[in-house]
Design brief:
- The chain is mainly alpha-helical.
- The protein has a single domain, classed as Orthogonal Bundle (Arc Repressor Mutant, subunit A).
- It contains 4 helices and 2 strands, in the order αβααβα.
- The protein has a two-stranded parallel sheet with strand order 1-2.
- Helix 1 crosses helix 2 and helix 2 packs across helix 3.
- It binds a DNA duplex (13 and 13 nucleotides) through helix 2, helix 3 and strand 2.
DNA sequence: TAGTTGACCGGAA
DNA sequence: ATTCCGGCCAACT
């Protein structure tokens, strides 16, 4: 039984190229629909090269943030993969 | 152990 | 439509 953090990382890693998911969706799949803040905290402090955190965005359509080059880099990656903002 | 923080979300003004 | 407020969760100090 993986912890919430492990579950979140595994889920984000499973996001296909060109797809974008909200923090709330990731939290819901991980087991806590209201743990969007926890997901954000995990992403912000625990980035893994296997976990494409840039595919996780806010429900408002905002990019949220990116600890690997800034929001501009995140937007560029999403556009490069064919995702919409 | 308890308090504070943060890449959030939903509802109300 | 935009802006403000409260509430939820995990990690850090």
């Amino acid at each position: 039984m993986p912890t919430f953090t492990t579950a979140v990382k595994d889920i984000v890693r499973a996001i296909p190229k060109g797809a974008v998911v909200t923090y709330g969706e990731v939290a819901a799949v991980a087991g806590n629909p209201k743990a969007a803040r926890a997901v954000a905290n995990i992403m912000a402090h625990n980035y893994d090269p296997d976990v494409p955190c840039h595919r996780v965005i806010r429900t408002d359509g905002g990019l949220g943030g990116y600890s690997r080059g800034g929001v501009a880099r995140k937007c560029a990656i999403l556009l490069s993969e064919g995702a919409s903002i």
